[in-house]
Amino acid sequence: MGHYNYDAFQIAGLTGITKLSSGYLHSLFLKNDGTVLASGANTYGQFGDGTTIDKSIPTAIPGLNDVIAIDAGVHFSMFLKNDGTFRASGINGSGQLGDGTTIQRLTPVQVGNVCENVLSTTAHPDDQVFAVYPNPCEEQLYIEAGNSYANDNTTIVELFTMQGQLLRSSVLETPITALQINDLQSGIYFITLKSAKGVFSKKIVKN
């Protein structure tokens, strides 16, 4: 029987990391400059570096910038950019990358038709329509909207996952509405305000 060392250790030279995600046999590290590093198995191109070469130390993924969230799956990876678009790489035999094909991708391909409802906007700046706080949040989230939105009984507040799954929906009846979010997993979500005047969205972080 081989000997395994289960003691925790610091990864040398790995600094400025804001998020990390561990997949089946690979790990992703998001840096504070929006770049991503990867290590581990790369058999299916899950790193997105254009190769299928495994890496024993975290290595930067070339050409991948402005990333704000990462998710390492089973032999594939997902990357959310700051413009709200997604990239994905790796195994795709069951269409798990969401690019409309079953083609393995060695470099990150843009995923279409994700969060269409959440990211729809109008010409009005969202900050002038409603505010969400605290953000990041933990137990409860408050949505504060102008009186013209809160008093028409047709404005809907919705909470979505990054993948566009609707988790909460309620009519905005008062200028300040509270949402209980203590049951949500840590991660990034979207709050959307829907009214006859348009659709307005904000990104929130659940700690």
Please state roughly what percent of the residues sit in beta strands, choosing from under 5%, 5-15%, 15-25%, 25-35%, 35-45% or over 45%.
35-45%
Q: What about the largest sheet?
A: 4 strands, antiparallel
In angstroms, what separates the terminal alpha carbons? 41 Å
Physical arrangement of strands within the biggest beta sheet: 1-2-3-4
Structural class: mainly beta
Q: Give the helix proportion (percent range).
A: under 10%
The total of helices stands at 2
Poorly predicted segments: 115-126
Total beta strands: 15
Rg (C-alpha, Å): 20 Å
Shape: elongated
Please, what is the average pLDDT? 82
Q: What multimeric state do the chains show?
A: single chain
Order of helices and strands: EEEEEEEEHEEHEEEEE
Quick summary:
With 207 residues, the chain is mostly beta strands.
What would your notes on this structure say?
It is a single chain. The chain has 207 residues and is mostly beta strands. A four-stranded antiparallel beta sheet has the order 1-2-3-4, with no helix packed on it. About 6% of the residues have low confidence.
List the helices and strands and how they pair.
Layout: E1 17-22, E2 26-31, E3 36-40, E4 55-60, E5 67-72, E6 76-81, E7 86-90, E8 105-111, H1 116-119, E9 130-133, E10 140-145, H2 147-150, E11 156-161, E12 166-171, E13 176-180, E14 187-195, E15 198-206
Antiparallel strand pairs: 1-2, 2-3, 3-4, 5-6, 6-7, 7-8, 9-10, 10-13, 11-12, 11-14, 14-15
